[in-house]
Amino acid sequence: MLIRSPAISRWNGATWTVAPVADPGPGLDALSGVAALTPRLAWAVGRHEVGDAYRTLIERWDGSTWERVGSPNVGTGPNALKDVAVTAPDDAWAVGWHVAGRSYRPLVEHWNGTRWSVVPTPDLGSGDAILTGLVARGTRDVWAVGSVTQADVPSPVVERWNGSRWARFPVPSDLGPAAITDVTTTTGGVVLVGRRIIDQVPQPLAIVLDRTGWHEAPLTAAPSSQASLSSVTTDASGVMWAVGTRLGSTGSFGSLVVSGCAPA
User: Which CATH number goes with the domain that contains 188?
Assistant: First the structure.
C-alpha cells in the first residue's frame, strides 16, 4: 500500500523547516494550497483518501500547531480542494472540484468563523469543470479560476464573488483552447496564469486585467515553448512572479520561473 502524508514547510527568514501537520491518514493524503492572514492564522487545503474516494481536507494554523478542521463534501464521490484565500478570521474561501456522475464539477467552500459550508456557483454546462486558483482582495471581491474541458479541449473559467453571489467573469474570446490555473491581484486588477494549447502543444499564458481591460503578457520559455504556468503571486514591490514547468533542450521537463511578467 502506498502511503502519502500531507506536508507543510515554513520560512523563518533564513531557512525552510518542516512543520508538524495533522495527518488524517492512512492513504494518499495531500495539501495543495495555503494562505496566511497573520503569523497566528493560516489555512491549508487539500484532500484525504477515504476508501476509494478523496474527501476534502482543511487544516488551520493557530501560531503553534496545525489542526484539522471539519469540511463538507458534495455527494459520496471524490472531492478535493486545490487553493485557499483568507481575508479575516471569519472570512476564508477554498476552491476545488467534486465528481458528480462521471463528470468533474466545481467546488467552492466558505468559512464564516464557525464552520465551512458549500457555496453555489454558476452552472458551467457540460464537460469536466474544475477550479484551481483563488485570490481575495476583500470580503466583497474574490476571484476563482479554472477550466472546463470538453473532448480534451480546455476552456478558461473566471468567476468573481461580489459579496452576495458568484458570477462568471468574461475573458478575452481570442484565447482559444486554454486553462487558467492561478490568479493574483495587482494594484489595479488581477493577473491570470496557465496554459494555452497551440497546435496541440501547451504554451505558457499570462493575461492581465487592469482599468482599461484585458491584456496578454508576452512570455518566453526558452529553449522550448512547450511549457505551462501553475502559480502566480505579487511581491511587496509589485513585481509579478509565476512558476510552472517547461520542456528543456534535453527532452526532460524542468522548473520554470518567470518574473516581471506583467505590470502591477
Answer: 2.40.10
